[in-house]
Design goal:
Blueprint (H helix, E strand, L loop, with lengths): L31 H10 L2 H23 L31 H37 L1 H15 L3 H12 L3 H27 L3 H8 L4 H12 L1 H24 L11 H9 L7 H28 L5
Helix pairs in contact: 1-11, 2-3, 2-11, 3-4, 3-6, 3-8, 3-9, 5-6, 6-8, 6-9, 7-8, 9-10, 9-11, 10-11
């Protein structure tokens, strides 16, 4: 019994180097933004939409700067000219270069879309955040105001504002923003009401954080994923609203041109010069499609459940 057990080399065998880390699971360390971008670029449609949108922005900036024509300069000697080297998109009934007017219209349409989305984000985020965080009677009163405003059609707000203030970019922005922030407020309210019951919100309250800090530094920040996706979807909606108003003749005042006014100008000539209406309609449709692709891509990239 006292005899010691002698260990012989045959009882043990070294693991090969190739198998030492066979069960080890490693991931590349990434920041949050790097992880979102990695998942976003894997979505081919979203990436294609982003590339197209960047090209449209470059087109809107560069073309009016380098072109010898302006959006309002007329040449009565070449009305309805077909596309050529001098006029790649042709000319309209007044001999104005359509490509320059499309680029100038992109500036107006994209500016309206982005500005309206940003204003709606700020107003809706603050209003909905306060309603969701306070709850009770404050929430009830604030959301009933939203319900009353929802009962009026969106387009009616915009038309009334434009009739009062005139047909310009400022009145279009005011009309779109008055009608559009309510959806954002409802979404933010729902997110805040869900998140304020979480442990991190209770911990912030226990350590003495103010209500404003809890709302804006904790609750709103943790709701930014769905909010960013909604903002992305607001841009094409605002572009469509501006184009629709300009198309029916109550949008941007002439000779300034947005995509809607260009389509309206070419509508009467669609039988004889159909190519003139193709350019603004294609610009509106492709830009809205690319923005929708970007919104879908952001929705997937910002959703941790789809990681």
């Amino acid at each position: 019994m006292d005899e010691k057990l002698e260990l012989t080399p045959d009882l043990f065998e070294k693991i090969p180097e190739s198998e030492k880390n066979a069960e080890r699971i490693t991931f590349e360390s990434k920041t949050y933004l790097a992880d979102v971008w990695s998942r976003f670029k894997d979505n081919k449609l979203a990436l294609a939409g982003l590339i197209f949108l960047i090209l449209v922005i470059i087109f809107a900036i560069i073309v009016p700067m380098v072109s010898p024509y302006t959006y309002e300069s007329q040449d009565p000697s070449i009305p309805h000219a077909l596309p050529s080297l001098a006029h790649p998109f042709g000319t309209d009934k007044f001999g104005r270069d359509i490509m320059v007017r499309i680029a100038y219209g992109a500036r107006i349409s994209l500016s309206v879309g982005v500005a309206a989305a940003f204003i709606n984000l700020c107003v809706g985020m603050v209003y909905g955040g306060i309603a969701g965080f306070c709850g009770g009677k404050v929430d009830m009163v604030m959301m009933r105001i939203v319900d009353v405003m929802y009962s009026v059609p969106d387009t009616l707000y915009t038309i009334l504002i434009m009739v009062k203030l005139g047909a310009n970019i400022q009145s279009i922005l005011i009309g779109i923003c008055i009608a559009s922030w309510m959806g954002m407020a409802r979404q933010v309210r729902a997110q805040v009401m869900t998140l304020k019951e979480q442990e991190f919100c209770l911990a912030a309250t226990v350590i003495g954080a103010s209500n404003a800090r809890i709302l804006f530094k904790h609750l709103i920040i943790n709701s930014m994923g769905p909010i960013i996706v909604s903002v992305t979807m607001m841009v094409p909606s605002a572009i469509y609203t501006e184009a629709f108003l300009s198309f029916i003749g109550i949008g941007i005042s002439r000779p300034a041109a947005s995509w809607g006014t260009l389509a309206n100008d070419a509508r009467a000539l669609i039988q004889s010069y159909p190519i003139e209406v193709i350019w603004p309609i294609a610009a509106i449709c492709l830009t809205m499609l690319s923005l929708n692709f970007i919104g879908d891509g952001l929705g997937n990239a910002l959703d941790p459940k789809k990681k």
